[in-house]
Amino acid sequence: xxxxxxxxxxxxxxxxxxxxxxxxxxxxxxxxxxxxxxxxxxxxxxxxxxxxxxxxxxxxxxxxxxxxxxxxxxxxxxxxxxxxxxxxxxxxxxxxxxxxxxxxxxxxxxxxxxxxxxxxxxxxxxxxxxxxxxxxxxxxxxxxxxxxxxxxxxxxxxxxxxxxxxxxxxxxxxxxxxxxxxxxxxxxxxxxxxxxxxxxxxxxxxxxxxxxxxxxxxx
Length: 219
Fold this sequence. Notes:
alpha/beta; Rossmann fold; 39% helix; globular
């Protein structure tokens, strides 16, 4: 059993238990980008499990307070970060906003939804960070709206080098509850994977776009 003193492993344990994350190095998944991947992540499942979503909310609040200090507002990134962001905002007694992937094509054509007059500083809540493109697009939308982005929290990140570089260039402090390396550690501890699986799983993260080259799916 994972110690409560190691929240990153605990979050990873939860994600594996409820099948929000699945690992399948021998029979890869295909992402929307066309990449072949040994991992599939759907953190929206966490909302269906009260104990899991409560732990995630508590960890988000702890990290926000310890890493960023109390912001004026919380913002969720559509769609996966909206519910978790609202839960965090409720817990902290703060106003809530959410950021669309693109501006609406009608009405006020907003990309940021909520009352922008109730504060200036904001922490952004995401469910998943992969390449970082959509997450940083949301940050830019908030900045364009005149808000100070104190940082971003996410449930999980793959830890791709390209994302690390992009967040650094955008001057955004990303704090994730757990990550790919911790996930593999927990998966090995719980016999979800074997030592033999670690090779292809680690190779994938080094070069995910080309990982499937020459791979016999299901082999």
